[in-house]
Design goal:
By secondary structure, this protein is α/β, with parallel strands linked by helices. Helix content is 51%, strand content 16%. It has 10 helices and 7 strands. It binds uridine-5'-diphosphate and magnesium ion (MG).
Length: 313
């Protein structure tokens, strides 16, 4: 019988705990062909979440509680859950039922078809504010342009199924800056998706404000690509072009158009400043060139991941 790990980070979710367990129990009770392990990560909750979880654990056999020493954040909490889970497939999901437990059945069906990664993709973002919707669209556009060969799926958060071997590869990644939604597509493997409508939070309040959303966006971009470090080179070249045009312009005016000498002095001062700036951007470009290498080396990602090796028998 295959074992499935459901991984749920919880931070100050006392209003949600019992609602979550009754919803998940209802769904798991129907999936009798599997055994389930619930890995709940208490991410340093300051409310009654942990005592509620301990009480829940005394009532059931399949609950693994990971209690973090303080609040580390959503990404580290999920990472801790993944490192602890022992299932043949792992499904990280939010506690607030915004990732509907009913979808677990669909994820498992795709898993049985042989997919290593099954993304749960949001069909709509009706529940989001205009700002969140707009920034999400822009974010995914931006990252799609920069991520090169890695295809980051749009509107997929933590909620997805990953097989044991994908989880093992995720655990093997040594980078400190953890962004699960970037790590999984980086690793590849046979991937598919199921669609769902994201409901509203069942109780309690979101932990994501504008600041943490910006942090997530910056972390995602920084862990995907070092392409922005090439930008100083382009700025240097463009700036040098502008200065070149200005210098030629001044020469032409100097030869053909009689203007006041003062104009030439001011123009010349501008050109000299411009040359200085161009030089500065070239220096930045050289630094960025090496910095991007340092970044790639310290991120220390595997430069390939093997799916399988087949030998002729
Ligand atoms: N969460 C966490 N640590 C944090 C913030 C959030 O473990 O520091 C958990 C939270 O309890 C929930 C999930 O991450 O299970 C998603 O958080 P939330 O619902 O606030 O995010 P949103 O759905 O609004 O993006
Ligand atoms: Mg939520």
């Amino acid at each position: 019988m295959k074992k499935i790990s459901i991984i749920v980070p919880m931070y100050n979710e006392e209003k949600v705990v019992s609602l979550f367990f009754s919803a998940i129990d209802k769904v798991l009770a129907k999936l009798t062909q599997y055994t389930f392990e619930l890995v709940i990560v208490n991410d340093g909750s300051k409310d009654g979440t942990y005592p509620l979880l301990l009480a829940e654990q005394s009532r059931r056999p399949n609950l693994v509680l990971v209690n973090l020493s303080r609040n580390f954040g959503h990404e580290p909490a999920v990472a801790a859950g993944i490192a602890t889970a022992t299932g043949d497939a792992l499904i990280p999901m939010d506690a607030d039922l915004q990732d509907p437990p009913e979808l677990i059945k669909d994820l498992l069906e795709k898993f049985e078809e042989g997919f290593d990664v099954v993304n749960a993709k949001r069909k709509t973002r009706h529940e989001d504010t205009f700002l969140k919707r707009f920034s999400a669209i822009q974010f995914y556009k931006f990252i799609a342009r920069l991520s090169g060969k890695v295809k980051i799926p749009q509107n997929v958060g933590h909620f997805r199924l990953i097989s044991r071997r994908v989880a093992d590869e995720v655990i093997r990644l040594t980078e400190r800056n953890r962004v699960f939604r970037i790590e999984v597509p980086f690793l590849g493997f046979k991937t598919t998706e199921v669609l769902f409508d994201r409901p509203k939070r069942v109780a309690g309040e979101t932990h994501y404000n504008l600041k943490s959303m910006v942090k997530l966006a910056v972390d995602s971009i920084a862990s995907t690509t070092s392409v922005p470090l090439v930008w100083p080179t382009w700025i240097a070249i463009f700036w040098e072009f502008l200065v070149g045009v200005s210098l030629v312009g001044q020469l032409v005016v100097f030869i053909f158009v009689p203007v006041d000498a003062m104009v030439h002095w001011i123009w010349l001062a501008g050109n000299i400043l411009g040359i200085g700036l161009a030089l500065m951007f070239y220096v930045l470009a050289i630094l960025a060139l090496y910095l991007s290498r340092v970044f790639i080396e310290t991120q220390n990602r595997p430069f390939y991941v093997i799916d399988e090796i087949k030998k002729s028998s």
